[in-house]
Design goal:
The chain is mainly alpha-helical and 236 residues long. The protein folds into two domains: 7-28 and 150-226, Endonuclease Iii, domain 2; 35-140, Endonuclease III, domain 1, CATH 1.10.340. It is built from twelve helices and no strands. The longest helix is centred in the first third of the chain and has 18 residues, at 7-24. The chain starts with 6 loop residues before the first helix and ends in a 10-residue tail after the last helix. Bound molecules: iron/sulfur cluster (SF4). Iron/sulfur cluster binds next to helix 9 and helix 12.
Length: 236
């Protein structure tokens, strides 16, 4: 049985990254957004297509170019109405910005870069609605460029099917095991792995259909071994 934290977990991740690079090419995600902007973008992005959440984010900052005004706004739900669960996300967004306004009235979160990843994750995760995916993306995808792996629904599904984590693992467990497997990886390495795995999840290892025959990582995939070589695996 595959063991987490073993030396070959590192080799698994390197192999997986290299196979995905060969299929999709190298990925160099841009990290140009300030941490507060990335936090807001991530808070409204869950289970929503990238173009939809980006459009909603742009509407937010067009209407409220000052974060303090956004924190006090009453129409956040209307502005992000096309993302999934807009009521819940608008509620969390308003509460999170209000909490930041108390502790950091200038909404400048660059101080997180001096805390180190564990403490920075902890600071962010005390905000309403902020879990490990949002906190990690705030650190990794923003100008902070800190080494924190972003586990979204695509990445979690692939890690479970692949057998790198248990089939019922949650985001935090997947984060912990991946980070433990690649301790020397830079922020850029982790951002690239995220982009490559997400691409696989959007095109081949989809929630409703896994096209294992064309999958570049099928050779080591636990799901394929468990089902003794079918072309598809159950949705999930
Ligand atoms: S072999 Fe199939 S289940 Fe495994 S990662 Fe690839 S598409 Fe997903």
């Amino acid at each position: 049985m595959q063991m987490a934290f073993s030396f070959w977990a590192t080799e698994d991740m390197e192999w997986l990254r290299d196979r995905l690079r060969r299929r999709f090419g190298r990925a160099e995600p841009s990290c140009a957004r300030a941490p507060i902007g990335q936090l807001v973008k991530s808070l409204i992005s869950g289970r929503t297509r990238d173009e939809v959440s980006l459009g909603a984010y742009r509407r937010l900052i067009d209407v409220y170019p000052r974060w303090s005004d956004m924190a006090a706004a009453a129409d956040l739900e209307r502005l992000i109405g096309d993302v999934t669960f807009p009521d819940v996300k608008a509620h969390h967004l308003g509460k999170a910005l209000a909490a930041i306004a108390i502790h950091r009235p200038d909404f400048d979160l660059t101080f997180l870069g001096n805390l180190g990843v564990p403490r920075a994750l902890g600071w962010l995760e005390r905000l309403p609605g902020v879990g490990r995916k949002v906190s990690a993306s705030t650190l990794n995808f923003s100008t902070l460029r800190m080494p924190a792996f972003v586990v979204d629904t695509h990445i979690l599904r692939i890690l479970c099917r692949f057998g790198f984590v248990r089939s019922n693992a949650d985001t935090r467990t997947a984060y912990d095991l991946t980070m433990a497997a690649v301790p020397g990886w830079s922020a850029g390495d982790l951002a690239e792995l995220h982009v490559l795995m997400k691409r696989l999840g959007q095109t081949i290892c989809r929630a409703d259909h896994a096209d294992c025959r064309s999958c570049p990582i099928s050779r080591r995939c636990r799901a394929l071994a468990d089902f003794r070589g079918p072309a598809t695996v159950p949705a999930g």
